[in-house]
Amino acid sequence: MKAIILLICVSTFALADDPDYHFSDDFVFGAATAAYQVEGGWDEDGKGESIWDRGTHEHADWVADNSNGDVACDSYHKYKEDVQLLKTLGVDFYRFSISWSRVLPTGKIDQINQAGIDYYNNLINELLDNGIEPYATMFHWDLPQPLQDEGGWPNRATADYFVDYARVLFENFGDRVKHWMTFNEIMQICEAGYSGGSFAPYISNPGIGGYECTHTVLLAHGRTYRLYDSDFRADQKGQIGLAIDSYWHEPNYPDRETDQQAAEVDMELNYGWFVNPVVNGNYPDVMIERVAKNSADEGYPQSRLPVFTDEEQAMLKGTFDFIGLNHYSSDKVYFADEGAGDHPSHWADTGVIGYQDASWPGSASSWLKVVPWGINKMLVWIKDHYGNPPVLITENGFSDYGQLDDYDRANYYKDYLYEILKAINEGGCNVVGYTAWSLMDNFEWMAGYTQRFGMHYVDFNDPERPRTRKLSSYVYNNIITTRHVDWDYYPDWPPAEK
Ligand code: NOJ
Q1: What predicted TM-score, i.e. pTM, was given to this entire model?
Q2: How many other C-beta atoms are found inside a 10 Å radius of the C-beta of residue 154?
Q3: Average pLDDT over every residue of 425-433
């Protein structure tokens, strides 16, 4: 019986004669979560309200299982247990996010919540005491509601408030946190939050809201980086990056020139949009041109894409110590004959149609098909376009419905990590580390708790929120400790001890 299970489960992507590449000793491995998705304690000890608190409370029926993050994994109380899970997993670092409203309940520095500072101090100290480096994300989508009441990210003043908040973080935690990510997935913050209205604050303003939001966010990122340079870097000696998500966009017919161009346009308008300003100081030329042309055709007096001044471009250029990459899946793309999407919209500005090949294995998330070679091409594209910057993979993972013998997740990690090894060894890519999403099952935004990404199962029906190791946690640990992908390794299952 066991032999049959193994046969079925062995990764479909491995070839017997693939080289046995190894991760170098300085390559770091981690696991990730985010505040709203795991902490709970949504209004405890002086925490203020965030847009996700407000959104899920006001529109419970918009979330798949009518749930919210009020309690989530209860990490606000159970962080010590989380740290033990991380320790057993064998990771070098934990990527968590800081809830702005827990630290600054109004979003502004007029009120600093000492209990919030204490919570993150306790978490950071507990991690360090257990030999795990804290990697902190400053903003993983949970904007303080009072700042949304003033317009949220499309309001340029939000950048001022963010930089004030960042200073509080550097002052309180920068002596121990040496890796910072300013923002997580600007595409989701801005396009989903302010263009499409599918994520909090659920604002629908296609073709405009996402661009205005992104402009403020990028300025906030750049100014935070410069603040670190001027006031903290010499003492604290840390690194700052940001986590940008992207599919790999593959030409529909790889040999067809127009499909190749469509893929390039799609990469620039969906990924270069955020990374080019940070590396080179401005939006990609092709994006500036396409949005300007569409805006003119639509009768706008000026481009819907905001403009960085020369001074802002100089400020933004080079504001990264590493590029964080959140990557899960890929699609195939081609130019739409009649234009893509309604006008105005970011999608119409790309002019590109994407789809996922029916032969690609699926997951519990409709958007997540398993395409391991996509991460390889993505990494090579980054190397070629931005001068081979250090890339930290800040998220990668697989969703299912919660089974403990999660062979599909384990194989996903094996297949994607092997493609990363190939990108390093054959593509010459400067990949410095890898973060598995996620340490444990958690609140998957509009999917609630129906889609699970964890290497640990969390029982959300039990008030104690017990965590249980899944099979993938053993496989990830094996990769970390052996520094390579052992295609044959699976733990005995079920495990003898918990
Ligand atoms: C992207 C986000 O950063 C994270 O919050 C989310 O849960 C995962 N990817 C999976 O969708």
Answers
A1: 0.97
A2: 22
A3: 99
* Cα–Cα distance measured from residue 162 to residue 216, given in angstroms and rounded to the nearest whole number: 10
User: Strand 248-251's sheet: what is its strand order?
Assistant: 248-251, 330-335, 352-355
Please report the DSSP string for 352-391 in residue order.
Answer: EEEE--TTS---SSTT----HHHHHHHHHHHHHHHTS--E
DSSP letters along 135-195, please? EEEEESS--BHHHHHTT-TTSTHHHHHHHHHHHHHHHHHTTT--EEEEEE-HHIIIIIIII
Beta carbons of 123 and 177 less than 8 angstroms apart: no
- Closest residue by CA, ligand 1 atom 11: 444
| Pocket around ligand 1 at a 6 A CB cut-off | 34, 37, 184-185, 326, 395, 437, 444, 453
**Distance separating the N- and C-terminal Cα atoms of the chain:** 23
Distance, CA of 243 to chain centre:
5
Asked if residue 110 lies in contact with residue 4, where contact means CB atoms within 8 angstroms, the answer is: no
Dist CA 479 CA 73 (whole Å): 26
How long is the chain?
498
Which atom of ligand 1 lies closest to the CA of 184? 3
**Chain position carrying tokens 């017919």:** 253
Q: What is the pLDDT of residue 7?
A: 44
Complete DSSP assignment for 399-410? -BS--SS-HHHH
β partners of residue 392: 324, 433
Q: Is 387 left (phi over 0), alpha (psi -120 to 50) or beta?
A: left
- Residue 338: its pLDDT value, please? 80
Chain mean position to CA 44:
26
**Nearest atom, ligand 1, residue 185 CA:** 3
Is the pLDDT assigned to residue 3 strictly greater than 50? no
Secondary structure of residue 329 in the 3-state scheme: coil
